[in-house]
Amino acid sequence: MNQLLTREQYWDRAAEKKEFTTPFQVELFRDVVAKEACILDIGCGYGRTLSQLDLCGFHNSTGVDIAEGMIKRGKKLFPGLSLEHIEDCGKIPFADNSFDTVILLAVLTCIIDDLEQEQLIREINRVLKKDGIIYMNDFLINSDQRNVDRYTEFEPKYNKYGIFELQEEKRVALRHYTKARIDELIVKFEKIVFEPVVYKTMNGNQSNGFYYMGRKM
Asked: What is the total count of domains within the chain?
């Protein structure tokens, strides 16, 4: 059996091949966030979302990612973007109240541990200014047989339903979330919108998901 990789190792090795597929609701974003807003994209990957925003007139943005390979790819694809490699997304290297908006796209799915998730949300709350905006999307629990089988297979190992390991050459543990768990994580934000959706995954499958915008309280 192939060795299970850390998320840093997985995304570093996948950096040149993976194409992110969860859509960014740019029209919604433009309705809520001002063009001059200072934006931080945590888990920015190769800069796909910040490039889209740059084309829409949002030029004051920074992206950070734990996968150095993703940052290197992004700098080649989009040399005008500010993209930085960080060691730990639970320790964001910016001062308190630094950003008007934080973006978090398909990042929680990579963080299977409850305490790490909570630390990341605390850091987001810390770097956001008063009344700052969080925009996030991610994956929710599915009920189809394929997903039920893999949730069930890995529940004894991780003591959590919804965690599974990708069965491919480069293996990594991922997580799909209950709505209740997402509600726990965003409890300190005032909801602007929460919309359930169905996403196409990077491996070509379909999964339940959501997008969310909230305001720091």
From this structure: 1
